[in-house]
Amino acid sequence: MTEACFDDSPQATELLAKTWQSPPGFFGWFTHVNQRKIGLRFIVTSLIFFALAGVLALLMRLQLSQPEINLISPDLYNELFTMHGLTMMFFFAIPAMEGLGIYLVPLMLGTRDMAFPRLNAFGYYVYLIAGIVLYISLFVGAAPGVGWFSYVPLADDFFTPGKGPSVWTTMITFIELSALTAAVELIVTILRQRAPGMSLNRMPLFVWAILVMSFMIVFAMPAVIVGSVLLYLDRTFQTLFFVPGGGGDPLLWQHLFWFFGHPEVYIILVPALGVVSTIITTFTGRQVFGYTALVLSLVAIGFVSFGLWVHHMFTTGLPQLGLSFFTAASAMVAIPSGIQIFCWIASLWGRQIRFAMPMLFILGFFAIFVIGGLTGVMVASVPFDTQVHDTYFVVAHFHYVLIGGAVLPFFAALYYWYPKVVGRLMSERVGRWSFALIFIGINLTFFPMHQLGLEGMPRRVYTYLNDMGWGDYNFFITFSAFLLAFGFFLTFYNAVVSYRTGDPAGSNPWNADTLEWATDSPPANYNHRHIPVVSSRSPMWDVARTGERPVVGGLRADRREILLTTVLDAEPQAAQVMPSPSPWPFFLAVAVAFGFVGVMYIPLLFVWAFFVSFLMIVGWLWPRRPWQKE
User: Fold this and answer.
1) DSSP-derived pairing of the beta strands 531-532 and 551-552
2) What mean pLDDT is predicted for residues 59-71?
3) Distance of CA 278 to CAs 83, 294, 417, 505, Å?
4) Which pLDDT tens digit goes with each residue over 119-160?
5) Phi–psi pair at 72, nearest 5 degrees
6) Whole-angstrom Cα distance, residue 611 to residue 600?
């Protein structure tokens, strides 16, 4: 403790701001380690990739709008299809949710930064470089065209020569480093940096959701990394992990991929459920019903989601007895999701709801997600799945779940936390038009795909015969897709314009209950001037009711310090000195990228990149200067 721990003088505040400030200028951008800057970069970059994936989807829909047209060649269509899936799953959905966690979790916990700020920055640079390399491959004729799932034997070197599948294997392995670093960061931050008094049973539900998501990433991502490495070895060194003639098995790839792939859906969904609980609490003005049930259901979703992967493989000839267990698990996962729905309905029941933009997107989520969930239970049945497998019925189900279960809550989060990030509110008028077009566009675009699937139209085809009678459906779907795209464009337009012209928001425009609203909008680089003390699940409503804002001191203003607390009860334990801004995370990301990209051409480059990366790590950890003594 220091004697001046509660020094609120302008000099102390100026010193604190100077201590936590990020270097200015173009070159300074590559040294930033501030959690809010890195989180915002994740969010903005993911939205750019979301827009790119949308453009690719519209190009595919133009090709499918009429039968037997040749607007796009079959090979290019396969590349666009692959890039669309890769972008949405790996470069938008997970990074967007992790970006929300990186930006908001420290603010919600009442701490000043993430646990490992430089690792946080490294994860972003890995993500950015992987996305840039992937899209460069599209323009240099090296884009993968084997689907976002890269099934073997199609992805083997014999059937698909060239660099396309190699780009898939290396970039997926590379970007998973970003996901894993962010997950480790979030786990340590949540468990060890909560404000005093914020025991586990007082954590915001959004923080619980991010914690569950992070643990799921830690256990799911290694499977796809192992699979992509084995596929690279098969293609480059002619190993036989997936070749039946050499003792391998193509189904091994599906097991490895879907052991990651299905939990990934819930990795995306779980943070969205936390967003829903947070917004419902704010716009009903009371604590969400069934806090304990909601937490336990989030944990249950995390566990059960690892027992569903074989329902992607019901038509592969696996033993029927084994399939029955995965059918049961696929239906079982609907139970904790249903618990969440009923808790939210109970929270809304009898309350005077404020229908601001975030709440409208949450109500849209209810309708779209429930439809997707119902069709999910349908495809969990082996006889039904056998009929609709690899048809447009699955495409419809998949998009209802992911757009309804992830995109709509994410856009609700954008409207809800936008004032915290920029200090201004987005236009409600433009937002309502955007929501209406998005909600209508989703249903007009994807609901007819159920009928197309029931009529037998296979997915992943670039054209179809006129005699099949699918032309009218596809033309209508294509028109609706452009309507949906315009709805998303309006939100992007709203965000850009409101940055300059939006109404000033103030520190807590929604009268919310969590600690991120205890700071200025946008927050200072150090987040919280003093570390707050929490005595309930609604600390901001406690302040409004009592007029008291208890805080704890002891952190110095002349160096970057955070408060560490105990895992269960969040009792103050120690002060931790944090590292300063540094360019070494960027240099390390470039060195690692050099190894991953180079290995596609000269495997020995990976060894050279290892030694270069070692030098970057030495620079990362090299002491810059000793701290001043007490």
Assistant:
1) antiparallel
2) 95
3) 33, 12, 11, 19
4) 999 999 999 999 999 999 999 989 999 999 999 999 999 899
5) -130, 140
6) 18
In SS3 terms, 215-249 reads as: HHHHHHHHHHHHHHHHHHHHHHHCCCCCCHHHCCC
What phi, psi does 301 have (nearest 5°)? -60, -40
Q: What is the pLDDT of residue 180?
A: 95
Phi, psi angles (nearest 5°) of residue 73: -70, 160
First-residue to last-residue Cα distance in the chain: 10
* Selection from 63, 120, 194 nearest residue 533 by Cα: 194
Helix (H, G, I), strand (E, B) or coil at 106: helix
Instruction: Specify the DSSP element, H or E, that contains 572.
Output: strand 572-577
DSSP string over 49-86 = HHHHHHHHHHHHHHHHSSTT--SS-HHHHHHHHHHHHH
pTM listed for this prediction: 0.95
Local structure of 410: helix, strand or coil:
helix
Token pair in block for residue 366: 């209810």
pLDDT of residue 320: 87
Q: Report DSSP state, residue 314.
A: T
Q: Which residue has the tokens 């005699």?
A: 467
Indicate the residue type of 364: G
Query: How many other C-beta atoms can be found within 10 angstroms of the C-beta atom of residue 519?
Result: 19
> What is the rounded distance in angstroms from the CA atom of residue 568 to the CA atom of residue 201?
9
Which residue's structure tokens are 């190894």?
A: 595
**Tokens read off for 514:** 């969590």
Is residue 528 packed enough to be buried (19+ CB in 10 Å), middle (13-18) or exposed (0-12)? buried
CA distance 473 to 491: 28
Q: What is the pLDDT of residue 604?
A: 84
Best CA proximity match to 280, nearest among 371, 372, 365, 186:
365
Q: Which of 77-81, 262-266, 405-409, 621-625 has the lowest mean pLDDT?
A: 621-625
Burial class (CB in 10 A: 0-12, 13-18, 19+), 12: middle
Rounded Cα distance, 390 and 147, in Å: 13
Task: Decide: helix, strand or coil at residue 553.
Answer: coil
Burial class (CB in 10 A: 0-12, 13-18, 19+), 539: buried
What's the rounded mean pLDDT across residues 589-597? 93
The 10s digit of each residue's pLDDT in 221-238 is: 999 999 999 999 999 889
Which amino acid would we find at residue 284? T
Which residues fall within 8 angstroms of residue 21, CB to CB, at 6 or more apart?
Answer: 525
Count of beta carbons in the 10 Å neighbourhood of residue 35: 26
Block residue for tokens 């059960």 = 304
Instruction: Indicate the burial class of 600 (C-beta count within 10 angstroms; 0-12, 13-18, 19 or more).
Output: buried
Token readout for 508 is 């807590």
Instruction: Please give the Cα distance from 318 to 312 (Å, whole number).
Output: 11
Task: Examine the pLDDT at 627 and tell me if it is beyond 70.
Answer: no
Q: Check: CATH 1.25.40.10 for 10-587?
A: no
**Using CA atoms, how far apart are residues 89 and 228, in angstroms rounded to an integer?**
16
What are the structural domain ranges in the chain?
A: 10-587
575 sits in which H/E element: strand 572-577
**Mean pLDDT, all residues of the chain:** 92
Q: What are the angstrom distances between the C-alpha of 575 and each of 123, 193, 365, 516, 553?
A: 25, 10, 42, 21, 11
Rg (CA), the chain: 25
